[in-house]
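Standup, Tuesday
Yesterday: got the pipeline producing C-alpha cells again.
Today: sanity-check two examples.
Blockers: none.

Example 1:
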Amino acid sequence: MRLDSRAIAAGVRLVAHEVVGSTNTEALNLARKGERGPLWVVAARQSAGRGRRGRRWVSEPGNLYASLLLTAPPLPRVWPQLSLVAALALHDAIGECTKRMEAALVIKWPNDILLGRAKLAGILIEGETGDAPAVAIGVGVNCASHPRDTDYPATDLAAAGATVTPSTLFAHLSVKMMERLAQWAAGEGFSSVRADWIARAAGLGQDIRVRVADRELSGRFETLDADGNMTLRLPDGRAVAVTAGDTLYAELFSVRQDAG
C-alpha cells in the first residue's frame, strides 16, 4: 500500500498490516495510545471486520480495507456528515480508477457505493468523545471478490471487468479523501458536499423503502436536508427526516439516465 504523494505532502501517514481484527478498531486503539491523525490504517485482511449496525463485513484478501483516523475532529454533532463526505471521496477514487464504469457508480444513502444495482463498497464511521476525541472513517471496497449471501445484492470490480488492485485504489482514495475533507471544512462547506452527493444519489425522486430500527418506511426519496438526513415523502403526504437506516431499493430505482 502507498499514499499518494499529495497526501504525504499534506501530512497524512500510513500504517499497513497483513491482518487486523478491524481497521477501525485498530485506528481508535492507536488514538487512545496517543497516536495523532490524519493516519490511515490498512490491512490485507480483517479477521473481525464489521459494517453498520454491527453486521459482519466479510474480509477476503484482494479487497481494500482501510480506515482514516482523525484526532482533531469537528464537533460530534456534524460527525454524521462524514458518511456523505467519505462516500463522495470513495466515489471519486473508484471512478478515477475505472473511467468506463464511472457513470454507473451511484451512492446509496447514506454511504454505500453501488455499481449499477449492486453494492460495491461500504463505509463505517465510528468516533469517541472525551479528553481525546477521535473519528475513524472505515472503508471497504470489493476489488477482487464479494460475498454471495447478502441481504442486498453485491458485486466487485473484477466481476464487472475492471482490474484494480487495492494498492492502486488506496493511493487514489488517500488524496480524494483529503480533497473532500477540505471541501467539507468541518461542516462549513457542507452545502456544496450536499449538492455533490445529491448529483450522485441512487433512487432520488423515486419510491423506496427504508428500514429504520424495527420497522420499515415507504415513500418517495425527495432530497437531503441541510443536515444530510434523507427527506422521505410518505404516502399520506407527510415529509419525514430519516437520520439513519438501510435503504431497500435494489429493484426499484433506475440508474441515472446519463449512466449509459
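Example 2:
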Amino acid sequence: MSAPQSTPWESDKPAEAWAAAAADPAIAADLEAVYAYIAAAVETRGPACWASGRCCHFEKAGHRLYVTGLEAAYTLQRAGVPLTRERIDRARADGGCPFQEQNRCGVHPARPLGCRVYFCDRTAQTWQQDLSERALSMIREIHNRRGVPYQYAEWRALLEMLTA
C-alpha cells in the first residue's frame, strides 16, 4: 500500500477536510466507483425492497446507520435539500433520518454505503453484511490513499459535524 498523498484538505478539523475531499472530482469518482460496485453486487442478488421507508426509522427498525465522514460530506453536498441542526435534532428525536420525506429517501442517488446494502429482506442479511464489510474496506482505502481523515460514526452525528 502506498503512503497517503499530501492533500490540500489535510486539516485539524475533519469536517472541513471531508467537505473539501468530497468536492474533489477525483475523490468523488473513487467513491462513486465503490457505489457502482455495490449496485452491481446488489443487482445480482435481487433483494426485496418494499420502499416503505421503515429502514429509515432507525430505532423502530432496531439498527443504526454508520458511515464515514467522506460519505456524509458527499451525501450532504449532493443532497439538494437544505440540512439544518433543527432538522437533524428532529430526526434524532423521532428516531429516523433527516433526509426521509414521506417515507421516501430524499437523497437516494447520493445515499451512503449503509443505505445501499441494507434491505429488510431477511434472506439478504448474510450477504449484505459481507458486501458492506468489503465496500467499507474499499472506502477506507480511498481515505488512506487520498489522505482524507477517517472517521466511522453514526450518521446523524457526522451530519451534525458537517453542519456546525
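Quick observation on example 2: Strands lie at 66-68, 100-101, 104-105, 152-154. The first strand starts at residue 66 and ends at 68.
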